[in-house]
Amino acid sequence: MLTGLAIALAFGACGGSDRSDPAGTASPDARDSARVRLIQCLREQGLEIPDDIGESGAPNVDADALEAALDGPCERFRGQAFGDLAEAGTSDAQEKMDKYAQCMRDEGFDFPDVELGEGPPTALHELDRSDPEFQAADEQCADLRVTPADIMGGP
Questions:
Q1: What is the spatial distance between Cα 66 and Cα 25, in angstroms, rounded to a whole number?
Q2: 8 Å CB contact between 130 and 57
Q3: Widest distance between CA atoms in the chain
Q4: What pLDDT is attached to residue 71?
Q5: What are phi and psi of 129, to 5 degrees?
Q6: Is pLDDT larger for residue 17 or for residue 9?
Q7: pLDDT tops 70 at residue 8
Q8: Rounded to whole angstroms, how far apart are CA atoms 112 and 124?
Q9: 151 contacts 35 by C-beta, under 8 angstroms
C-alpha cells in the first residue's frame, strides 16, 4: 500500500509531460481540469481517490494498481495534470522532500530518500500509514510534507 506522501509523489513525480502539453505550458484551469479527469480515470480503474487529495493526504492505495493505471489508461491525463517537473520549483520541492525524509528518520522510521521525478521508492510501500506511531511522526513532520502544489507550484 502507498502512503499519502507516496501517492502525491506518484501523481507529481511520475516524470515529465505528455504529448498534449510537451512544454508543460497548460494554463492553471487546464491543469485543474486534467487533474479532475485523472482522478476520475483512477476511480474508473477501481482506486479510491478522494476529491481533496492535495489537501487531506491520500488513502492507502495498492501500488501495483496505481502504477498500472498511471502507465495505462490514465497516462494521458498525468502529463496534462502536472506538466513537466523541470519547471521552476522542483528544486525547492526536492529540498522540502529531503527535510521531510530526515524528519521522519529523526522520528524513528526507516524512511528512504526520495528523488522527485523517479517515482516513489519501494521502501515507501512498506511503511504502515495506519500505525499510530507513523501517524504521530507524520503529524510532527507535517510542515515539511511535500504536496502536489509544492511540485507543481501554486498555493
A1: 26
A2: no
A3: 43
A4: 82
A5: -65, -20
A6: 9
A7: no
A8: 7
A9: no
Res. 39: pLDDT tops 70 = yes
| Domain range enclosing 39 | 1-155
Helix axis angle, 4-12 to 75-82, nearest 10°: 90
DSSP string, 95-148: HHHHHHHHHHHHTT--PPP--TTS---HHHHTS-TT-HHHHHHHHHTGGG---H
Using the structure block, give the residue that is written with the C-alpha cell 501495483: 64
Selection from 95, 127, 132, 93 nearest residue 109 by Cα? 127
C-alpha cell read off for 80? 496534462
Residue 2 backbone phi and psi in degrees, to 5: -95, 145
CA Rg, the chain, in Å? 15
Q: Average pLDDT in the 62-83 region?
A: 79
Domains: count for the chain: 1
Residue 76's identity, in one-letter code, is R
Please name the amino acid found at residue 153. Answer: G
Cα 60 from Cα 2, distance rounded (Å): 5
Residue identified by cell 506522501 is: 5
The closest of 134, 93, 88 to 111, measured between CA atoms, is 134
